[in-house]
Sequence to fold (179 residues):
Amino acid sequence: MRADARRNYERIVATAREVFFEHGVEAPLDDIVKRAGVGAGTLYRHFPSREVLVEAVYRQEIEEIAARADALAKELPPAEAVRAWMHEMIRFHTERSDLTAALKAAIDEDSETFQYCKTKLRGAAWALLEEAQTAGVVRADLEAVDLMRLSHGIAASARSADEAGRERMVSVLMNGLRP
Fold:
């Protein structure tokens, strides 16, 4: 991709992300075009359908949350890194539920995008988990998918909780993860 095309692609994805979070994934694509400062043709050249644009935004979100796991593993002791990432995942699931629902409605769970995102997140979870297991601060029988399911479950119940309530739920979770 040429440099100018790459910049337009990135600008459209970043703008779509903002617009989707402000107005939902059904926001008019014209709003994205105007805010990104590109023409409709540029948008449709990169993203021939709304679903393709939603996929691109979702992939970026997944890449960021996975990168956050890597950063936390480098910054914090293992148990604290797991705790911090669980907070990140709960926030992600809570704030991005509309995007996730739109993606699930638009594409098959066996699609390349779903497989990529699942692999990326599980890899991030495994990296944190293995380090915490090696340090002896979490149960040895845990798997990456356990962390993923736990973050989904807590996020579902945390939608109506304030920050203190979310912290209590994560504290209970972390106590349950101990060996």
Remarks:
- The radius of gyration is 18 Å.
